[in-house]
Automatic annotation (TrEMBL):
<keyword id="KW-0808">Transferase</keyword>
<feature type="domain" description="Response regulatory">
    <location>
        <begin position="6"/>
        <end position="122"/>
    </location>
</feature>
<dbReference type="GO" id="GO:0007234">
    <property type="term" value="P:osmosensory signaling via phosphorelay pathway"/>
</dbReference>
<protein>
    <recommendedName>
        <fullName>histidine kinase</fullName>
        <ecNumber>2.7.13.3</ecNumber>
    </recommendedName>
</protein>
<dbReference type="InterPro" id="IPR011006">
    <property type="entry name" value="CheY-like_superfamily"/>
</dbReference>
<dbReference type="InterPro" id="IPR036097">
    <property type="entry name" value="HisK_dim/P_sf"/>
</dbReference>
<dbReference type="InterPro" id="IPR004358">
    <property type="entry name" value="Sig_transdc_His_kin-like_C"/>
</dbReference>
<feature type="modified residue" description="4-aspartylphosphate">
    <location>
        <position position="57"/>
    </location>
</feature>
<dbReference type="InterPro" id="IPR001789">
    <property type="entry name" value="Sig_transdc_resp-reg_receiver"/>
</dbReference>
<dbReference type="Pfam" id="PF02518">
    <property type="entry name" value="HATPase_c"/>
</dbReference>
<feature type="domain" description="Histidine kinase">
    <location>
        <begin position="178"/>
        <end position="409"/>
    </location>
</feature>
<dbReference type="GO" id="GO:0030295">
    <property type="term" value="F:protein kinase activator activity"/>
</dbReference>
<keyword id="KW-0418">Kinase</keyword>
<dbReference type="Pfam" id="PF00072">
    <property type="entry name" value="Response_reg"/>
</dbReference>
<keyword id="KW-0597">Phosphoprotein</keyword>
<dbReference type="InterPro" id="IPR005467">
    <property type="entry name" value="His_kinase_dom"/>
</dbReference>
<dbReference type="InterPro" id="IPR003661">
    <property type="entry name" value="HisK_dim/P_dom"/>
</dbReference>
């Protein structure tokens, strides 16, 4: 997200415009607002102000939101458009949502405005990423021949088939990203319509109807989380990686800031032991790794104990490196070791490896939320750094994750392995 967001506010009531600005300020977003109230001012601002998002009243004396949104479409501008009004009415809101309006917020309840602004900006950013991926796919001319299940590599054909498989997997990962993104639009509409029904129609429903509506709401929310996790997995699986020396302390503090509310709610303690040396990593991936491991420890904390998470860091010389996985061939260099320990609910030893499998859950979804993708992302990030991760759980005592990655990364040795995912079972059970 940009450091400063440009927000165009189409509103003829100065008091209402001030309330909208104050509400968005509460989200912590840094933004530059511009208020307009006529068609001419709006059209000029689209070109000169170039907004990142538009917040519009539904009806004004000389202009209205529906006309403004159609002007946006005629100019082929894909800018998030949120209607903020107290007079729109349910029927008009549904019609505009069908036309492509991002969302709407009632002036009588502005509490959700900040959240919807953030979500609208995020979806616009992901849409732009999708366009860039599609452009790259058009440029690429690599042949897409997927090898047969029982493909046998022999002599000269082995190298040729391996290259074909790598290219096919790259395309499949791009397809996974695009498909997951496209699923968000209809799902967002479903969630919006469910919210409308739950706000306005629930009183007239039978108890069975209310229960069914609540189940639909929960399932749609879980599906949205699944899609977002799949998008995250697609980004992590990207073959192109750029390593840079990074300050681990800054990365950990950023993650703690993101999880501040959960940390405070659970009265968690996060302690770092050992030297916080610079690390040679893909920054956005490694930040995701630390976020997922800390978030996992907070989620699976012991119900009778405040979470205590210890992060230990150290450098291990090559000849002192001891790994449980005998199939992993370490590079002949020193390794950077990062260990996460918690006092949570732990797990049985038989799940030490299974815990990293995509969609693998050790608990029912009604006990702990989640999609079963978080630790699969962690393992893929470690793989991308030519490293290895171990997990060890002790039931009702806690969990330990140990990460080992080479101190020096060679971009030419980046693993080319990709994963083809069968989503049929998971999607069928959402």
């Amino acid at each position: 997200m940009k450091k400063e967001i440009k927000i165009l506010i189409l509103e003829d009531n100065v008091t209402d415009a001030d309330l909208i600005i104050r509400q968005v300020h509460k989200s912590g977003i840094s933004f530059l607002p511009k208020i307009v109230e006529t068609r001419k001012m709006f059209e000029e601002s689209l070109d000169l102000f170039a907004p990142d998002i538009i917040l519009s009243d539904y009806s004004m004396p000389a202009f209205d939101a529906a006309t403004a949104f159609r002007m946006l479409k005629n100019k082929n501008l894909h800018i998030p458009f949120i209607i903020v009004s107290g007079t729109i009415g349910e029927e008009n809101a549904v019609l505009l949502l069908k036309e492509g309006v991002t969302d709407f917020v009632s002036k009588n309840n502005l509490l959700t405005l900040s959240q919807k602004v953030i979500r609208g900006l995020k979806e616009a950013e992901e849409s732009q990423e999708k366009k860039e991926i599609l452009e790259k796919l058009k440029i690429q001319t690599a042949a897409l021949l997927i090898a047969n299940k029982e493909l046998v590599f022999q002599n000269a054909e082995k190298e040729k088939r391996a290259i074909e498989l790598i290219n096919a997997n790259k395309e499949l990962l791009a397809f996974n990203f695009i498909s997951s993104h496209d699923l968000q639009e209809p799902l967002r509409k479903i969630q919006t319509f469910i919210s409308i029904i739950m706000e306005n129609e629930m009183q007239g429903m039978t108890q069975a109807g209310k229960n069914n509506m609540e189940r639909i709401h929960v399932s749609a929310t879980r599906m949205r989380q699944l899609i977002e996790d799949l998008l995250a997995f697609s980004r992590v699986n990207s073959i192109e990686r750029e390593y840079e020396m990074s300050d681990l302390r800054i990365i950990i503090e950023d993650v703690k800031t993101d999880l501040k509310d959960t940390i405070q709610e659970k009265k968690a303690v996060i302690a770092v032991v050992g030297p916080l040396l610079p690390v040679n990593v893909v920054v956005f991936q490694f930040r995701q790794l630390i976020y997922n491991l800390i978030s996992n420890a907070l989620k699976f904390s012991h119900p009778d104990l405040s979470p205590h998470i210890t992060i230990e860091t150290s450098i291990i010389e090559h000849h002192n490196l001891k790994l449980r996985n005998q199939n992993f061939q370490p590079q002949k260099c020193d390794y950077w070791n990062l260990t996460f320990k918690d006092n949570g609910i732990g797990f049985e030893a038989e799940f030490n490896e299974l815990i990293f499998v995509m969609f693998q859950r050790l608990h029912h979804s009604h006990e702990y939320s989640g999609t079963g993708i978080g630790l699969a992302i962690v393992k893929k990030i470690v793989d991308n750094h030519n490293g290895i991760i171990h997990a060890e759980g002790i039931l009702n005592e806690g969990t330990t994750f140990e990460v080992f990655i080479p101190v020096h990364q060679n971009s030419e040795t980046v693993l080319q392995e990709t994963v083809l995912i069968d989503l049929q079972y998971e999607l069928a059970n959402v």
